[in-house]
Amino acid sequence: FSPFLPPNSSWDAAYERELQTFQDIGDTGEIWFGEESMVRIIRWLDKHKVPLDSSVLDIGTGNGVLLVELAKSGYMNLTGIDYSPSAIQLSEKVREKEGMSNIKLKVEDFLAPSAELSGFDICIDKGTFDAISLDPSDALGKRKLYVGSLGRVLKPEGFFLITSCNWTKEELLNEFREGFEILEELPTPKFCFGGRIGNSVTALVFQRK
Description:
Domain Methyltransferase: 55-184
Strand content: 25-35%
Number of helices: 7
Protein name: EFMT2 methyltransferase
GO molecular function: protein-lysine N-methyltransferase activity
InterPro entries: Efm4/METTL10, Methyltranfer_dom, SAM-dependent_MTases_sf
Structural class: alpha/beta
Distance between the termini: 32 Å
Catalytic activity: L-lysyl-[protein] + 3 S-adenosyl-L-methionine = N(6),N(6),N(6)-trimethyl-L-lysyl-[protein] + 3 S-adenosyl-L-homocysteine + 3 H(+)
């Protein structure tokens, strides 16, 4: 599954449509990479006995559904950011519907994070790094800004869980080589094309040095 990644100018329009749909019929919209991607993340946190009071940042939270699932699993210190105000509006409505008042949501540009966005134990990215990578204006510079921001907001020895449909494991290792080390690759669905088996999705766990 490969989510369609529109250029930046249409993110707000996309989330405005999802916001309207949610108000009309209560549908939260697209779950990027599907339900199993959320299960994979929660299972890893659980397996490694990550404390439930750990501070978690969801980078590019979209509709906020991942944070709701984390809250249902017992995590208490949850923050979601998105640079689209419509996405944050949508995630606020989802949060209210689910009664998860302890989830913090903020409009933030991760490439220029505010000073209070710091000290997180866990950062999670499902597709945001992909979207930045496809930005037609200075994608390389924006990827560098992203890695710099990650180093500022994540505590030393904190964990970074990334799910990508654009990058291979080797490419991601290269992108995050400054300041981060790979802990493990998480299993993702495989596809077969022309007799060759490959992964349509890559999911990695890094630790900040």
